[in-house]
Amino acid sequence: MPEALTVSDAEGVVRTASRSLTRLLASDQSAAAVLEHLDDRAPVPMGSIDALVRWKQHELLRIATRDLAGIDAFDVVAASLASMASDVLRAAVGLADVSGLAIVGMGKLGGCELNYASDVDVVLVQGEGDPAAIERGARRTIEIARRCFRVDLNLRPEGRNGALVRTLPSYEAYWDRWAEPWEFQALLKARAVAGDAALGAAFDASAASHLWSRPFTAESIRAVRAMKTRAEAEITRRGLSDRELKLGRGGIRDVEFAVQLLQLVHGRADVELRAPTTLVALDELADAGYVARRDADQLASAYRFLRTVEHRLQLDDEQQVHAVPDGERELDRLARVLGYAATTSASPVQRFLSELHSHQSTVRAIHERLWFRPLLEEFAHGGDRILTEEAAAARLAAFGFTNVERTRQAVVELTRGLSRSSRLMQQMLPLLLDWLSSTPDPDLGLLGLRNLASGPQRSMELATAFRESPEIAQRLCRLLGTSRLLTDHLRHNPDMIDALADPAALRIRTRAELVEGTRAGVGWRPNPDERWHALKRFTDREGLRIAAADVLGSVEVAVVGRALTDLAEAALEAAVAALEPAVPFAVIALGRFGGGELSYASDLDLLFVYDGATASDFAAAEQV
Q1: What angle is formed at CA 539 by the lines to CA 534 and CA 545, rounded to 5 degrees?
Q2: CA 231 to chain centre
Q3: Predicted pLDDT of residue 494
Q4: CA atoms of 280 and 111, how far apart (whole Å)
Q5: Helix, strand or coil for residue 32?
Q6: Alpha helices, H only, 238-346
Q7: What CA–CA distance (Å, rounded) separates 289 from 126?
Q8: C-alpha span between 350 and 273 (Å, rounded)
Q9: Contact 542/567 with Cβ under 8 angstroms?
Q10: Is-contact 497 471, C-beta < 8 A?
Q11: pLDDT at 618
Q12: What pLDDT, in 10s, does the model give residues 317-368?
């Protein structure tokens, strides 16, 4: 037992939080000894069913006590519960004396993230031997395991109408011909846990092969979304949207399904994303750039909170409870078990509900951004999304890049550099090549992309912008493949890339707005060189804004000429004002400038007029 926790303390936290475990302590004198040795996991007995049931009860007591006393974090608790269930299944196979049977954990068991009152979801695989004997042994195994847990076999092919035990070839035939998208989603967490180890390993390998070798199509995405929508509609119909921790808005499923959808879309090309445990997969998604790190951290924090609340509800009497109670007395008890105390401004219930609703709101907002991300459909078209060096040459020729060798080198540079900071960007490259191929100069666009993405920080920033908005990616490709000057301006002003998704950000400024902007940038700088650099930066950025609106087709040609003219006039006005000439002074525009129809390469044809007649007057004006 940890030094800071006495047996009396341990018994106190258990009696406060769990009626079922309190009954266990009252009815089984040997259970009290568990509280004296919380660090010691007893070996699993193999002699009798009753001994196995007693071991499970004692191990649950040990795990729960460590949880309630704050010794183990949620992640450890969930993994410990899954380990306990796996041990029971292994012991049940031994007690049933069956060979040629493998038990595969699904759902939270397979993901090593079990609840206190979870169903233990499994499917059964038949190996070599007498099929009738194996099925009898399987039924006996499940009977024994059900003395300890609720064992659910409904994730097998065809559900409760399907065969209890199937051979591996039978599973493979089902996956090849009839499996629905949600059944492949379930394979994300498939993991052999008991029985014939070689057969279980073969099942795991085949399930992974079938899951990751098939494209997860846009239709598959729609099917998964529709399934979740139906479940939410039922919760809404029952009036539980805000209280339901699992299926309600901003609940546990919002986190799990968002993570799983991203795994299904991107995991085919990125093997690091295939972890069956939600929090592990979420962390990997963030490390690789598929989810913003801040979003991932908020989702992980909320997930741990929601699952902990769910655990406290289920520990009360080991029932499958997922809804927060609506009675004041029950709510007060739950809040206190969770550790909330009254303050001068809020009761335990108020503090608990405030944190609950905050997490739910955060989860729902992030879930909707990830769940309906437009780029998912782009990735779901199928095909290999990791562009190897060999594949690059073929793609470049097919996409119409003329200088294949030079641009192939650019692709190699991009993939090697970007793979260190964003595996998402590596997957996006085929999409980007497709979009670049429709631009006036695909070779120029690819080289521009390489320049923009130079360095880990910039590549990650670019990948982040593309991840959140495919419009940014497509529009940037258009600009990069149109003009070397635009590429140069974007490289020096990378913050403007995000503006490509917002039509308002590309709005043409009025002359008055431009004058105000130039004067604000120049006026406070005392050094002439600093003034010049500030003015050039302003005109470059505004010129980029005008050109982007032009190339992307949001303004007419006549508007572009007027906008460039207004920008030139504003720059000249700011320059004259900053120099404060000693004599009355005017700048006269000629040619296209005078006609208000400048082009991007136009000279500014000017006349300078001042009021004066002497040489000193001329010298004063010449300084301008």
Answers
A1: 130
A2: 22
A3: 86
A4: 10
A5: helix
A6: 252-266, 278-288, 293-317, 328-337
A7: 41
A8: 38
A9: yes
A10: no
A11: 61
A12: 999 999 999 999 999 999 999 999 999 999 999 999 999 999 999 999 999 8
Nearest CA-CA partner of 570 in 610, 547, 543, 599: 543
Query: How is residue 306 written in tokens?
Result: 């929601």
Per the listing, tokens 């598959």 go with 220
Residue type, 554: S
Under a CB-based contact definition with an 8 Å cutoff, are residues 2 and 38 in contact? yes
Cα 309 from chain centre: 23
Asked if 123 and 106 touch (Cβ cutoff 8 Å), the reply is yes
CB of 541 within 8 A of CB of 488? no
Give residues with Cβ within 8 angstroms of 313, minimum separation 6: 245, 321, 322, 323, 324, 334
394's CB contacts (< 8 A; 6+ apart) are: none
Q: Which amino acid is at 526?
A: P
Amino acid at 302: A
CA angle in degrees (0–180, nearest 5) for 346-351-353: 130
Q: What does the longest C-alpha to C-alpha distance in the chain come to? A: 117
Is the separation of the CB atoms in 93 and 141 below 8 Å?
Answer: yes
Residue 201, both tokens: 């390993």
Q: What is the pLDDT of residue 378?
A: 65
| Distance, CA of 428 to chain centre | 16
For 244, the 3-state DSSP assignment is strand
Separation between Cα atoms, residue 103 and residue 155, nearest integer Å: 13
Closest CA to 46 of 97, 91, 86, 84: 91
Which amino acid is it at 322? H
Residues of the chain with pLDDT under 50: 382-384, 418-420, 624
Give the residue carrying structure tokens 């005017």: 586
Closest CA to 446 of 395, 493, 385, 512: 395
Measure the CA–CA gap between 52 and 57, rounded to whole angstroms. Answer: 9
CA separation for the pair 505, 267 (Å, rounded): 35
Handedness of CA 302, 303, 308, 314 (dihedral sign): positive
Would strands 606-610 and 585-589 be described as parallel, antiparallel, or unpaired? antiparallel
Helix (H, G, I), strand (E, B) or coil at 223: helix
Q: Shortest CA distance to 610 belongs to which of 602, 600, 618?
A: 618
Question: Rounded to the nearest 10 degrees, what angle do helices 74-96 and 49-68 cross at?
Answer: 180
In whole angstroms, what is the distance from residue 230 CA to residue 225 CA? 9
Helix (H) or strand (E) holding 254: helix 252-266
Both tokens assigned to 447: 């080289």
Complete DSSP assignment for 158-218? TGGGS-SEEEHHHHHHHHHHT--HHHHHHGGG-EEEEE-HHHHHHHHHHHHHHHHHS---H
Backbone torsions φ then ψ of 421, nearest 5 degrees: -120, -25
Q: For residue range 204-222, list pLDDT tens digits in order.
A: 999 999 999 988 888 888 8
Q: What amino acid is encoded at 217 in this protein?
A: T
Per-residue pLDDT, 583: 74
Q: Say if residues 318 and 116 touch (Cβ distance below 8 Å).
A: yes
Which of 456, 506, 518 has its CA nearest to residue 479? Answer: 506
**DSSP calls for 363-398:** HHHHHHHHHT-THHHHHTT-S--S--HHHHHHHHHH
